[in-house]
Predict the structure.
Amino acid sequence: MELTYKRTNIYSVADEAEKKAIFDYCEGYKRFLDAGKTERETVRETIALLTSKGYKPYVLGDKIKKGDRLYYNNRNKGLFILKAGTADVAKCGVRILVAHVDSPRLDLKQVPLFEKADMAYLKTHYYGGIKKYQWLTIPLALHGVVVLKNSKKVEISVGEDEGDPVFYITDLLPHLSQEIDAKTIREGFSAENLNLLVGGIPLKGEEKDAVKKGVLLLLNEKYGMNEEDFLSAELEAVPAVKAHDVGFDRAYVASYGHDDRVCAYPEITATLETETEQTVLTILADKEEIGSEGNTGMQCILIRDLLDEIAKSYGVSPAVLREHSMCLSADVTAGFDPAYASAFEEMNAGFVHHGVAMNKFTGSRGKSGSNDASAEYVGYLRGVFERDGVIWQSSELGRVDLGGGGTVAKFIANNNIDTVDMGVPVLSMHAPYELVSKADVYSAHKAFSAFVK
């Protein structure tokens, strides 16, 4: 009889077949990461996958029939995937999986282009929580859309293909940085200096802003845009680096955007591959990194609209459907890092290789801003995971008085839906290049699959 709680290292118990399954699964995950570095690209890639599996676009107001496979594209930045089941939603509700597909990055300002010292730059405004110094001296790519004056939408992606140029933010050499070194990191690195170097060749015949005009000419020739078109553009600077295995044994994956595509991808695969009678709603949300605001964030009323449409189609009360629904709000957690052990409370930290981690509560300092799941719901999920042999762990985001953070869970729970946070432990979270264990990614897929059953 086991009396104590002990985490399990997945690699220590996996046989060769299980290890092969883990590694094979993460090859697909790496392709997913490389194909979708922004929320728009992730939605586009997911829709292509859904279409290949027979899913059809859904129009609000249309009747939903049992057996339907549908998706709702929310402004190309968010996505709702619906698998309409045969189970009685008045008793079983809907199984909801949520992850966000936006990541910390550098957005271009609306008037970004300037020239100084014969060099052309684009000004940025960082998006989400970043350590600014981490974005200096790394290769950056530019992704996004520009809506021209004639309303034509142009997609831009520069820095990813072989032979593409990349962009760059300079840093000061150590020989001259004594004054900066004496400051705190927050004081020493100004957001207004996060300017992308984008050009250096002057346009002949021009005396003023010749380099800037040279860049504008290139943009006009390739995309048909002029400087005013930046006003109606959404352009994001992201690391121009592919996902890579890490370690001699390839136990890890390093990539930009693990937060939170490392949860989105297992949700998508669990939804598509799991046979279930349940009605499943999988949500890929935008704007989590800045508070889930706006009509593509999880605070938008759209989730209730879709649940109401499901209830109406099945002929049940929307309130009853919500009351019996359940949600796994999948967002990453901080992986215990022995190099910074003092930031964690080790007994309740999430460890890499030990499976997807459940955060019963999130928030900061006193659980502020948290959805705190009930003991009954956590107990139910324990049984679900035990039934399907899912290796998972409990986790907490750092020492109580140190910091913390929140996710979209509270916005789901506010609809009277049992909700808990569950996600993959990440090392170097919010850095331009984050690290996860392959075993934990596969554990998330197994956990989400068990849940939607």
About this structure: DSSP finds 13 helices and 22 strands in the chain.
